[in-house]
Amino acid sequence: MYLYIYIFFYYPDARSITHLRNARGLNRLIYISCSPQSAVKNWIDLTRPCSKILKGHPFVPKVAIPVDMFPHTPHTELILLFERQIPNNDENKSNHTVNNDIGENKL
Questions:
Q1: Neighbouring residues of 89: CB distance < 8 A, sequence distance ≥ 6
Q2: Can 91 be counted among the known catalytic residues?
Q3: pLDDT one-digit tens code per residue, 2-54
Q4: C-alpha span between 4 and 27 (Å, rounded)
Q5: For a tag on the chain, would you pick the N or C end, based on fewer CB atoms within 10 A?
Q6: Residues in CB range of 12: below 8 A, 6 or more apart
Q7: How far apart are CA 7 and CA 26, in angstroms?
Q8: Does the active-site annotation cover 77?
Q9: pLDDT at 26
Q10: 77, 83, 91, 104: which is the annotated catalytic residue?
Q11: 34, 50, 83, 104: the active-site residue
């Protein structure tokens, strides 16, 4: 079961990204970047397919919002919403077991 948990990251390192990808129950992530150019590697790691190191389902960018906090400079913050890409077969499993007086039935 995936919970709606939001984690905000301002400047994560490579280990943080690995822990986020491997975290169970985490399906939404808000990433705040002060330097979009330097955050691209993190975004790639969040969205790449599963591997030996990145075991969790990949994230998919859903919304990107640029924020111009300093209009007199070329600097721009970027806020991204990532959601976990969960395959359909994980969402629609029907292997629930119900105990009743007759015995166990698979629904």
A1: none
A2: no
A3: 455 566 666 667 788 888 888 888 888 888 888 877 788 888 999 999 998 88
A4: 6
A5: N
A6: 20, 31, 42
A7: 8
A8: yes
A9: 86
A10: 77
A11: 34
